[in-house]
Specification:
With 215 residues, the chain is α/β, with parallel strands linked by helices. The chain has a single domain, classed as Rossmann fold. The two termini are 29 Å apart. The model has no long low-confidence stretch (mean pLDDT 95). α1 runs antiparallel to α2. The chain contains six helices and nine strands, in the order ααββαβαβαββαβββ. The radius of gyration is 16 Å and the shape is globular. Helices cover 30% and strands 26% of the residues. The longest helix has 17 residues.
Length: 215
């Protein structure tokens, strides 16, 4: 599988479509253009890669639709800048991790499904994203060894905001997390002091559920 001119053309059309739906910064649109989404999908699905829709990646999980990836990245990068540490909960196939790395962030990412964690490592290595630290583990626990993080991005629907993740957020940092059971509200949580957090809501979305433990 290669990044053909056909795929590049489809990616340009996707970026044009995303920019018509929301005024995303050029830096985010450029990052999504540079990351070849089709290379994160199973063979046979690559022809669907540049539709604005979620797609299956195995283990009953999905790769988020590009608009959702763009919006979560946008909400995070309103606060988090280049070279700062971010924690991603739910690596999946590695696509969102690659977009964050393309934005210049130092990415630490955790995945509870062993099969997907290995797939993400393979995909990211293949595309030369060698600075991303992948970890197989329980997302509810986070990665305290590497905390605090300037940003935390959760890519699955949490029933509530995990306390342990809040504690791993740097003062002045932001968490982006979809909360809810059947559907989710996208929430940003800004840590303004050791004990104070400010929350705001950013629309309704649909994610696979955030689950405890590992598989």
């Amino acid at each position: 599988m290669v990044d053909s001119l056909l795929h590049q053309g489809k990616r340009r059309q996707l970026i044009k479509s995303l920019s018509s739906k929301y005024p995303f910064p050029d830096s985010i649109l450029e990052a999504l253009y540079r990351v070849p989404r089709h290379l994160f999908l199973e063979k046979g699905l690559d022809n669907l890669a540049y539709l604005d829709k979620p797609l299956p990646i195995g283990c009953k999980q999905t790769i988020s639709q590009p608009f959702t990836v763009a919006m979560q990245t946008h909400l995070l990068c309103e606060v988090v800048g280049k070279f700062q540490k971010v924690l991603e909960i739910g690596t999946g196939c590695g696509y969102q991790s690659a977009v964050l790395a393309q934005m210049g962030l130092r990415v630490y990412t955790i995945e509870r499904q062993k099969e997907l964690s290995m797939l993400a490592q393979k995909n990211l290595t293949k595309l030369d994203y060698h600075t991303i630290l992948t970890h197989y583990g329980d997302g509810f626990e986070g990665m305290p060894k590497f905390a605090p993080f300037k940003g935390i991005l959760v890519t699955c629907g949490a029933p509530e905001i995990p306390e342990k993740l809040l504690l791993q957020l740097e003062v002045g940092g932001r968490m982006v997390i979809p909360c809810g059971v059947d559907s989710q509200t996208m929430i940003t949580v800004d840590r303004i002091s050791e004990k104070e957090y400010v929350k705001s809501e950013h629309g309704q979305y649909s994610f696979v559920p955030m689950l405890k433990g590992v598989e």
